[in-house]
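Let's do one together. I've listed all components of the complex below, 323 residues spread over two lines.
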Amino acid sequence: MRPTRARARAGKHSDSARRALRLLIVAASAAAASLLVSCGPPPALLEPLFPEAANSQSTTKPYVGTARRTFPKKTSEAPVPLPSPESERPDVEAIYAALPRNDDGQILWMKALADKTIAPRPGIAADAKDEEPTDMDVELEPKDQPEYKVVFSHKVHTSWMVCDNCHTGLFEMEKGKTVITMDKINAGEACGVCHGKVAAPEPTSCPACHEAMGK
Amino acid sequence: MIRTACTLATALLLALSAAPAVGGDLGDVKFARDAPGTEAIPPAVFPHSMHRISYKCAACHNGLFEMKAGSTKVTMDAIQDGKSCGTCHNGKLAFASTFATCARCHRE
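Okay, and this is what the predicted structure of the assembly comes out as:
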């Protein structure tokens, strides 16, 4: 057996000194045990062993003082999530599924706008402002062919776009200056730059633009 | 060799990441690509309809993109720099372009 420091120290002295040391250890452990018991009611595990102690009122005062170190307070509540743009954004896929469509499955964008299924923003910037729609109809009628008359609604178009989207790259400002033909449209020019590619006349087919043809 | 490995890895990532069931509408723009080494990655498809839900035409045209498809060059470098699609697709306004989201655009 390897001698401990105490034993080694005791070994240097007499037997009486060793006995005194042993007595001191016993006394110290007894004092520690009594201190533990007197410090408060026994913990829950010891309750069956000390039933009277569990029932009696404790006379010891709780320790009041300042902790040497401060710890973050533990709260049972879940942390409040920071508002993120993602959570504020509308569920685009749900709106997409709810978009009104015609029999051909084409989205009726003007209807969606009118019944507020969608609320498209005019710009990417947070403070982007909507431009007032231009309420001006332009009647386009081929010479001596009133059945092909088209009423172009600026109001409909400016609810999506601004003037310089079309003027004057696509269309001159002056009425009639830019010649529009169905051949051009079918070739993807004039109205055909958008219509048939990204925009469908609503409802589709000729009377969408040539109103008289539907009568 | 390394390029091929990278391409294959990206293609695998693309196949694994899920794409939402969206598209087939008038105005979907499929981007033609001519960069070498990108054959394995499906071309990006721009769903106009998804964007029209949130923005009017004038929000992007003609400031960010010209009207005519293909007239404004769109590159991944520009997107990563916060330009082009990256103006919005930066993780703040809309989902960012990361390896986890490749297939949301590259989903032919």
